[in-house]
Write a structure and sequence with these properties.
This protein has 146 residues and is mostly beta strands. The protein has two helices and nine strands. The chain is 14% helix and 45% strand. The strands form two sheets. Strands 4-3-7-8-9-6-5 form a seven-stranded antiparallel sheet. Strands 1-2 form a two-stranded antiparallel ribbon.
Length: 146
């Protein structure tokens, strides 16, 4: 179960709750530094069922943070109406399997061209599983809250 900001309850279906994550929009990923401070990065993402997949490089700060503490928050806003956003809270698993294929797929979706593989970098697939969804529609939004 998750709690929507407006007080509605329901099970995550992977459909409407992930609407903003299904288009190539830039997503803010926040991890937790060793001192407890948040660390945020803008990332490419795509939906896989009810999970969200992202790519990173082994050794980067966000990767080290997720290896130590799998709790992550993702935030995406509607580019046509930035007063509408969805925050996902959950945990991640990491694997190197499929890392090069995922970054190539994301590059084609976001940039319209294939990714140039960098042999010195080890690509990691980040599989984010949401445990809480907060959907927000501000009063200034063009959309009506449902």
């Amino acid at each position: 179960m998750f709690r929507l900001r407006r007080g509605a309850y329901g099970r995550m279906t992977g459909m409407s709750e992930l609407r903003l994550f299904q288009e190539p929009v830039f997503v803010v990923m926040t991890t937790i530094n060793p001192d407890g401070a948040p660390q945020s990065s803008v990332v490419w993402a795509r939906v896989d069922g009810s999970d969200v997949l992202m790519s990173t490089i082994r050794g980067r700060r966000k990767c080290r943070n997720m290896e130590r503490d799998p709790r992550v928050t993702l935030l995406a806003y509607d580019p046509e109406d930035p007063y509408v956003y969805t925050e996902l809270r959950g945990t991640v698993t990491l694997t190197e399997e499929g890392g090069d294929a995922l970054i190539d797929e994301l590059s084609r979706a976001y940039e319209g061209r294939p990714w140039t593989i960098r042999p010195a970098e080890t690509r990691v697939v980040v599989r984010f599983t949401p445990t809480r969804v907060i959907e927000h529609i501000a009063a200034q939004s063009k959309k009506k809250p449902s």
